[in-house]
Specification:
By secondary structure, the protein is an alpha+beta fold. The chain folds into 2 domains: 284 residues, Zn peptidases (Aminopeptidase, 3-Layer(aba) Sandwich), CATH 3.40.630; 112 residues, Alpha-Beta Plaits. It is 31% helix and 26% strand. It has 9 helices and 21 strands. The structure holds zinc ion.
Length: 401
Amino acid sequence: MASQTLSHVQYRYREQALIATLQNLIRQPSITPDDAGCSELVAEYLNQMGFTTQIFTLNGVTNLIAQKGHHRPTLAFLGHTDVVPPGNPETWLFPPFSATLNNGFIYGRGSVDMKSGIACMLNALTLYYADPESDHNASIMFLLTSDEEGPADYGTRSIVDYLKQSHIPVDACLVGEPTARRNGGDTVKIGRRGALSGTINIHGVSGHVAYPHQIDNPLHTAAAVIKSLTQLNWDEGSADFPGTSLQVTHIDSGSFTDNISPSDCRIEFNIRYSHLWCEQSLNEFICQAISSVCNQFEIHWQRPCESYFSSPETKTTKLLSIIEQAVIKKTGRYPTLSTSGGTSDGRFMASICNDVYELGVPNQRIHQVDERVAIEELVVMRDIYLETLKGFFNHPATEAF
Ligand SMILES: [Zn+2]
């Protein structure tokens, strides 16, 4: 009886610690790429657990690399401390960096995306090390950047470069992004489509429309180019991965006069692509299509984001099945496996690690006014992370390392 009371008190205490950690993080106004002290705060928690931590800043971006234990496989937690701007604070029910607790929710910018993920991971680690049954020499990493919501040039990309140069292996990675559609654990992301934007410039000869033989109208050529781009045969994807698609997003031929044909035309487009493509193969495919209808054009590419897919053929650990078992144990439901949504920093980790999965709290309110997370969702996610940790380091498959 006494021990039951004690464990109840302990549990309440740990729930309070989870809430307090999240509130501390939200109260640092870390608008991208400003870390605003979040990494220092997380490092303090991790140091208390025996992690070695290093924080390095690069072009205004703050990155944290923390590590404990050397007993492979290595499991890395990945996340970001930066948040998108809150917009007009007057439109919020509570000030966006106040972390107000109201009616079972914690309000604040970043409460969902993704300071809740960081708080749950930290709290799960505390509970993991508090358990004498746990492997205290398990190799665990905690990786954070303040440049996920921005251009992502000096964030996780730099962390991955450092790990590569230092020959530090990562066998599996769990990204704490908010992935659930309705309830925590309902969706695990197993990859993301890539994204690439392109600009095509077509040159012509401007002139009076009454003398068509003296002009070369670039808009007419642009029409043929767009037709060729929209009729490309892309892959259709699979049950786990949507196919590739291209959308024309803008056409510009300068100022308009109704009796003059323009001299130039610019076409903008964006491609969302599956793991079957890369920047190089897309470039070749698109240039070939344009060349079939236009001999003179220029093409420029912007904002490349590679795709990633933790394919069942290449994965080397059992992390996905361990996550699935943890979700079933804590929620009673199987998670849906998905690759939907925009890009994520999982793509950088995928270049050094075959098993990258994303799992976090419900994402309906990300980037919105009154962003808030339910405390019961926080507890569920913390418990799933803890169960995943236990499963990962006790699983027979890990003996192979
Ligand atoms: Zn995020």
